[in-house]
Amino acid sequence: MHKYDYTKLPDEKAFATAAKIASYVVPRLYKPLRCAGGENIPESGAFIFVCNHINAKDPAPLMYAAYPRRLLYFLAKEELFQKPPVAAFMKLMGSFPVRRGVGARPALQYALRLLEEGRAVGVFPEGTRTEDGAFLPTKVGAAYLAWHSGAPVVPAAIYSPDLGHTGSAVSVAIGQPIPAAALPFGDGKAAGRRAAAEQIFDAIRALHVQAKEMISDNRGGHP
Fold first, then answer.
1. Are 207 and 199 in contact, with CB atoms under 8 Å apart?
2. How confident is the model at residue 217, as a pLDDT?
3. The domain spanning residue 204 has which CATH number?
4. Model pTM greater than 0.70?
5. N or C: which end of the chain has fewer CB within 10 A?
């Protein structure tokens, strides 16, 4: 795998330039791309952006939905960083690799550093994308970040009848921020983080209903 340097923060200026270009390209990849709730994206300060996962290209419409208010730095599976050209593109777009499972600590520590810098970190709590549109069991990574950083969680849901493939209809619904203090962490141990993770994903489930209706009711535009 192309070795990622977790000691250096992403180049925010280069990312902003790439995101501006992407904002013209991304909506042309879907027919249509509908977004709602962009006003719920905090204009400043750290937050954790969480969403269900239906397609490898999900970060594109999600970044579009948050732009130009904020840039989202997504955790992405390390397999995407195996080839240097692809790794360079992923890095340009603010993504950084995570080894799923017991090897996730370096990426989580890096995410905490981004949050300390006041940036927005994107997480797919399911840990991988669905094959059939059904929700997968949620992991506790987003809850871990919220507990250790104190940053609010911004829930979102993405929906597509064709699982987000290029040329398909895609909708994104973004909900109101959830303060870390409002999550049921208890003493912050495993049971509390699991309870917080489930509450976070409940918010995603509720927004998924809205995202689905946006396609059927022909609602939504760029936030």
1. no
2. 76
3. 3.40.1130.10
4. yes
5. N
